[in-house]
Amino acid sequence: MIQVRTGSIFDSKCDLLVVPCASDGDVTRSVFDNLNEHGLPVTVGAIPYGHAHFRPVNYAFASTIAYAASVNANNITAEAHAIANIARQVAEYARANQLRSVNLPLLGTGAGGMLPVDSFQALKSALAAPQDIEANIFCFTREIYQNIAAATDLAALARTLPNPRVFLSYTGTDRTNAQWVRALCDALRRNGVNARLDQYHLKPGVDLPQWMTNEVVMADKVLLICEKFYAEKSDFRKGGVGWETMIIQGDMLAQGDNKNKYIAILRGTDGITTLPVYMRSRYAFDWGGVQEIDADRLKQLILCLFDCETEPELGTIPDYVKQHRRS
Hints:
Strand content: 15-25%
Helix content: 25-40%
Number of strands: 11
Order of helices and strands: EEHEEHEHEHHEHEHHEHHEEHH
Number of helices: 12
Largest sheet: 6 strands, mixed
Shape: globular
């Protein structure tokens, strides 16, 4: 899915941040200043023209950065085939590493002198098809955005139903519970939900608190898989669940009027005591102590994650009611 925005690639959170550079590794002054301001590497070395170099980073707004050699350093030009090849590499890397959200500029339109509409079309050719990737293409000015909008049916691109990004917070103290959570994650992903789980998405060497922060903040929804060990670790700030609780409560404050991001799934037969104290005033899905993924409960959860309305349509008022009102 493609979204076209105005502004800078550094303005919003993503999984993968694509930074333009020349094939000799040089970047423009504005890109250098942004990289330096955000504590990101400003030098990368030579990269073959039309290719990208990927590097994991400890950065609050992205977990990985891609340096895209979109300008040929030999003649200071950019070409559509090179931009499209970079976009294909970005899509392949994102899919292979379970990265959903990608921020890209209109590659080649600065020093490379490429027309913004041509750059957009080259990016679109490689990024429009994969529905599991959300490509945010940034236009530096409103005028550029309007030119692209005039040449492209942006409304058609936006009509694609997005895959909600959902982070699963749980404790693996009980091995059976960890296996159940993994089965739930698998079931959600089979049904179009971009479910995120440490068993799949936490890579060796990654800074754990930063990873948890990124996942919680970037999620459309967060599922809290609540049983007695989870409640204990949350209430007493123990282990990874303790870290996540602090991050979650901070994000709850930032959400303001949005009360639907955090959803508790109650597991076990101990009732409300299996919920963390801060979640006891909120409605929770009660899945009891079942060890299988219940199909009806799963359907109800998926409808909730896609923000679907589930109540019947409002019908017309019966005539006998109207007659009684008149009388």
